[in-house]
């Protein structure tokens, strides 16, 4: 059951339980709010429709737009797992289960287990992404950004025109030219590292990039342990240009751009929190290295509070972030993330769900993927003493 705040006629705020969505017959997906007896019937969302369907009419937080081959149905256990995550019926976070690799890398026993190689990769990434103070470091920050920039080049508008490709396909590294684009400056080192890891472990670059992005998040103290699905297909064709968001774009334009990626404003609010670990270099070179919150090595919610401060000390604020934080479709969610009691868990949960969606954009074989979440390291649930 999902909890959300509902504004009552008298202006009071209280928590209400929402009914979980379900698929219905004849191409409709009724959504029911039990306590208000509200039912919304909407047709199954085609890829080309940018406006969302099955949205909670009171809170605009319910996104049921499907992606990839799930548009034609979830036909396997993994497909159903991803579908349930997207619909809000299952958690996008995972718990360790004591997995141990059945054998050394390239051994017969390891090759027989799809996830074994990823357990060896996780050891390499844990070492590479952990800084001297046991916080996530610059390479981890770059890995998170690389995941966004590879997957974020997909658009439902282009998909509706027959161009249902780009997205999480590894092309940002494999194409040779995409990494040189202006918006990808600063990602050269992590791209080189990904090439080295691919040579060592012989896995899909598309998977490696997304595994790196979620691994970097859980390497950061307080970061969520997001579920990982392997099986993406690589592409060496450069992604279409102009599909990544600009830091100077108006809020409405950014929201429209993300909706074309099936990402709604409340999900965008969660994804922006990745700036909690960001340091900027190129937006304002005179302030290169300035972080976007005061604890860039920790996955915490200080970013949300410090972004809306008028003059945060030694913090670099993107004007697009400031504008989005104040946007009517995002400001309530933004303030919820600041909550000192529930904000961290709320954000982690929302981020994990939103990033699962983002990481599978342009992936049209979700039903054939394999879940390897169990190889990831455990969450670091405590803030470092010195932070």
Automatic annotation (TrEMBL):
Q: Which SUPFAM superfamilies match?
A: Heme-dependent peroxidases
Query: What is the enzyme's class at the highest EC level?
Result: oxidoreductase
Keyword line:
Calcium, Disulfide bond, Glycoprotein, Heme, Iron, Metal-binding, Oxidoreductase, Peroxidase, Signal
Q: Where is the active site?
A: 149
User: What cofactor does this one take?
Assistant: Ca(2+); heme b
Question: Which residues does the record give as heme b binding sites?
Answer: 275
Pfam families (alphabetical)? peroxidase
Which PROSITE patterns does the UniProt record give?
Answer: PEROXIDASE_2 (PS00436), PEROXIDASE_4 (PS50873)
E.C. designation(s): 1.11.1.-
Q: Which residues form the signal peptide?
A: 1-19
Query: What are the binding positions for Ca(2+) 1 in this chain?
Result: 150, 169, 171
TM regions (residue ranges):
none
Query: Does the entry annotate any disulfide bonds, and if so which pairs?
Result: 115-372, 136-220
Q: Which GO terms describe its molecular function?
A: heme binding; metal ion binding; peroxidase activity
Tell me where in this chain the Plant heme peroxidase family profile domain is found.
138-387
- At what residues does the UniProt record annotate the site feature described as Transition state stabilizer? 145
Q: Name one GO biological process term.
A: hydrogen peroxide catabolic process
Q: Which residues bind Ca(2+) 2?
A: 276, 293, 295, 300
Please name the InterPro entries in this protein's record: Ccp1-like, Haem_peroxidase, Haem_peroxidase_sf, Ligninase, Peroxidases_AS
Q: Report the cofactor remark.
A: Binds 2 calcium ions per subunit. Binds 1 heme b (iron(II)-protoporphyrin IX) group per subunit.
Q: Which family does it belong to?
A: Belongs to the peroxidase family. Ligninase subfamily.
Protein name according to UniProt: Peroxidase
**Which source organism?**
Zymoseptoria brevis
